Amino acid sequence: MSKSFPDGFLWGGATAANQLEGGYNEGGKGPNLADVLPGGKKDRLKLLSDTGFDFEIDQSKYTYPNHEAIDFYHRYAEDIALFAEMGFKTFRLSIAWSRIFPNGDELEPNEEGLAFYDRVFDELAKYDIEPLVTIAHYETPLHLIKEYGGWRNRKLVEFFERYVTVLFNRYKDKVKYWLTFNEINGATHMPLLGLGFSPENEETRLQDSFQGLHHQFVASAKAVQLAHEIIPGSQIGCMLIYAPVYSFDCNPENVQYAQEQARIFNNFCGDIHVRGEYPTFINRYFKENDINIEMHDGDLELIEKGTVDFISFSYYMSRTDKKNKTPEEIGQGNLIGGVMNPFLEASDWGWEIDPVGLRIALNELYGRYQLPLFIVENGLGAYDVVEEDGSINDDYRIKYLREHIQAIADAIEDGVEVMGYTSWGCIDLVSASSGEMSKRYGFIYVDKHDDGSGTLARSRKKSFFWYKKVIDTNGEEL
């Protein structure tokens, strides 16, 4: 296997507060978006894609797994000790905005929430694990959604600036690596998660989504500048969901269509974060879709000055597409659309598995931007079976991760600068897309099930010991 990984490579795992913390109404925390999302693939996916979601809790009709999740809120010390046992160099986590500002628009933060993350960061420091903190990860405070309409409203830029200023001042001696908005370019596909609003109808979806994105670009640029001012030596990055787009065949019309889809999905947000300007290719798209972005004086200058230090991204799948496709051809499991790729296998949830696509993604991103790259999400959601002796033999997960890590090594050999790799859901947690516990990603099994039952006991899967060896050898033994 390749020996390409550089010294100081940041191996670790990734999570999000809303998917593992629990304690949804403890410590002064206010309700957020995740607290009103029901569990179950059928219910959650329908609500994520429908219009007119009411943002209310109905326990007579739904379950809400995020309320307890895996109880990291009370068990963080136990979990961090397990991460340390694997040898983590970094741990990606998010901060729940509504733990710090319960409504989102207060003038003063909630001290109990700030103190909780102090304890988490101190626990990580005991083991020399570097925190990688996502500032906004599908956790918009519910009050900002109901009262202001989410990121469609310019007021959220002001509230976000106050939030990040508090974070940077409080944790300036504890956190060096920051990310602004999780998978920001996915917002047009699922504005509910990324932008905190449910489209009123399909006709307004794109206009409202791109307006909300503009507000996030301004907020991100402000955050970058504040991080550099408040925490000298800090590094702050953007976070994209990246999927190379393949043409279904060599028909030039399909090749052109695939290229257009890649530009809009993969490059639009990245260009603004990295190059500090709206790319020219978006003008035609806006014109054809009747999208008009309202900007304030100084927005473009602010975006120009607030470019990121590195690019982080999630990689789960590639996308294959063609211009004219029938409903039967659409890849049902791939949340980002496209048609089925006949050369790829798929996961239990229908997500196509393409490790070569990760090498392609790394080369595409580095070739376009020449900034350090950080793979902060990658993993296999699968059903795990606990054997009678308590073991979990997840060789399928090891195979998936081995092939993807080898693809990273190959990209590094290609000349790509890669900072680190954090496998998604390093400990089992609630799935964001389906609200299930049975869709497991972790090296650590958590005894919690879709119906809410379970002891929450932690146990090591076979992949736990495999990943420990990978980290111990800096990727030389896969």
Automatic annotation (TrEMBL):
Source superkingdom: Bacteria
Annotated active site: E377 (nucleophile)
Keyword Hydrolase applies: yes
An example molecular function term from Gene Ontology annotations: beta-glucosidase activity
A Pfam family assignment: Glyco_hydro_1
GO biological process, alphabetically ordered: carbohydrate catabolic process
InterPro entries registered for this protein in UniProt: GH (IPR017853), GH_1_N_CS (IPR033132), Glyco_hydro_1 (IPR001360), Glyco_hydro_1_AS (IPR018120)
Annotated Gene Ontology cellular component terms: cytosol
Family: Belongs to the glycosyl hydrolase 1 family.
Protein name (database record): Glycoside hydrolase family 1 protein
Record's keyword terms, sorted: Glycosidase, Hydrolase
PROSITE patterns (alphabetical): GLYCOSYL_HYDROL_F1_1, GLYCOSYL_HYDROL_F1_2
Keyword Hydrolase: yes
